[in-house]
Amino acid sequence: PHPNTLLNLHEFAHHATRLLSPKARAYYTSAADDLFSKDFNHTVYTRILLRPRIFRDCTICTTSTTLLSNPVSLPLYISPAALARLAHPSGEAGIAAACAKYGIAQVISHNASMRVEDIVAGHEDGVFGYQIYIQQDRKKSEELLTRVNALRQIKFLVLTLDAPVPGKREDDERQSNLGGSGVAAPSGVQLAKGTVDVSKTSANPETGPGAGTGRALFWGTASDLTWKTTLPWLARHTDLPIILKGIQTHEDAYLAALHAPLVKGIVLSNHGGRALDTAPPAVHTLLEIRKFCPEVFERVEVWVDGGIRRGTDVVKALCLGARGVGIGRAALFGLAVGGMEGVERVVEILKAEIETAMRLLGVERVEDLGPRYVNTRVVERE
Ligand code: FNR
Question: Where is this region: Disordered (predicted)?
């Protein structure tokens, strides 16, 4: 279907899953174990009620804001997600073009299927982040940081910490057992970190069941990162603002805030449910931080991702203190349905839904959204 005929993100997910190859579909949609966290990421938003105020002038509605002082037209951004070219040949560059049209931020994955230089090319005014997985071989990471530091369009670095080892994604593993290469990548898909050892990913009588695309991508990733050693090392190799992604407890949010101003922000995320199943959705972590250490919101920017399907989901996260709200799979699904235009349509739909929600709530500006506009009683009992 033409992307402009689709009305919501559910329709994009439906059509995208039919258009993707079985391996790409398994890689994109899979999540850890029993998919509890993946599903809960979304359903938790349906348990938060909005508290609309009436009799207010809602002629004006302003969604523009800043992310780490960078002006953006929406608090919505694209979360880092690997291998966009499995969805469409335009890949991460297609997503970048859609973001440029709407003036929103894109976080480029370490496992992007194109060179970072080629993704940001031509978008001089773009707001990009670069997500890094630190490698066992630190020299490789240092070389990558040198490249990223040199790109003016990259405004911040996102260090993902919730997946020092990959989660157990059975759909992804199952696909690699069906024969062929375990990596879903068609020929020509280039990873920043080079080639992947395909032999270990497919079912093989010697090595046992296939590991799947997710596990293949993780080879070489360091699992020895710590607050004490990694942050000083990172600070020696970049001047970019640092964001820590994958915070899932108020204790770690507090620790991250203690590392301000070196750490400028945190992303509350359970990796789209792809790492530890039954880990909490970002909403729960937001509520924990509000309760136990609200000063975190003053010291670092708090962003969230996971399960965003509707403008009301975005608005609820903002009410609870998020400054930025990321979408992962939704952008890939947009790309699968219509390349750059598909991503544009996904953003257009969310923008319109956010504006409608704000108007019906009686709020003119995103900075005026706050806890008084949500009822979280049900979620707080969980
Ligand atoms: C991811 N995610 C991810 N995160 C990250 O820090 N680096 C990465 O390379 C990837 N790769 C990746 C691939 C795919 C296919 C998915 C679906 C996700 C996690 C991503 O940034 C984000 O946390 C979740 O996708 C958010 O959940 P939703 O929006 O997909 O529900």
Answer: 167-187
Q: Which atom of ligand 1 is nearest to the CA of 160?
A: 6
Residue 19 near residue 257, CB atoms below 8 Å: no
Report the C-alpha gap between 165 and 32 in whole angstroms. Answer: 12
Task: Give residues with Cβ within 8 angstroms of 75, minimum separation 6.
Answer: 63, 65, 67, 314, 318, 322, 323, 324, 325, 354, 366
Residue nearest to atom 2 of ligand 1 (CA): 81
Nearest CA to ligand 1 atom 16: 81
Q: Which pLDDT value is given to residue 219?
A: 83
Of 375, 272, 253, nearest to 322 by C-alpha is 253
Alpha-carbon radius of gyration of the chain: 20
327 lines ligand 1 (CB under 6 A): yes
Residue 204 Cα to ligand 1 midpoint, Å, equals 28
Nearest Cα neighbor of 83 from 176, 152, 219, 186 is: 186
The model's pTM is 0.95
- Spatial distance between the Cα atoms of 254 and 268, rounded to a whole number of angstroms: 12
Per residue in 73-90, pLDDT (tens digit) is 999 999 999 999 999 999
Contact by Cβ (8 Å): 233, 210: no
Q: For residue 217, is it left (φ>0), alpha (ψ between -120 and 50) or beta?
A: alpha
> Comparing C-alpha atoms, which of 88, 92, 97 is closest to residue 110?
92
Show Cβ contacts of residue 196 under 8 Å, excluding neighbours closer than 6 positions.
183, 185, 216, 217, 219
Nearest CA owner, ligand 1 atom 19: 271
For 240-328, where are the alpha helices, taking DSSP H only? 250-258, 282-292, 296-299, 311-319
